[in-house]
Amino acid sequence: MAADGTTTDYTSAAWNSLKTSASDMVAEAWPIITAIVVAGIAMRLFKKFASKIS
């Protein structure tokens, strides 16, 4: 069964598809991660300056 080489072709195609899907998901996640980090920094700065004012 594994001697004919078709199993290797299927597994290679599956791994390549998985790698492509993972790369696409990571590329789509970067803007979300950046927005969360910027929002966190903005909240900390707002808290810091708001406590100094009052």
Helix content: over 70%
- Quaternary organisation of the protein chains: single chain
- Topology as a string of helices (H) and strands (E): H
N-C termini distance:
76 Å
Look at the helices and sheets and give the structural class: mainly alpha
How many strands, what sense, and barrel or not for the largest sheet? none
Provide the number of structural domains.
1
Radius of gyration: 23 Å
Estimate the global geometry from the Cα principal axes.
rod-shaped
* Mean pLDDT across all amino acids: 88
Query: Which blocks of ≥5 consecutive residues have pLDDT under 50?
Result: none
Number of strands: 0
Beta-strand percentage range: under 5%
Number of helices: 1
Explain how this protein is built:
The protein is mainly alpha-helical and 54 residues long. It has one helix at residues 6-53. It is rod-shaped. The chain starts with 5 loop residues before the first helix and ends with a helix. The model has no long low-confidence stretch (mean pLDDT 88).
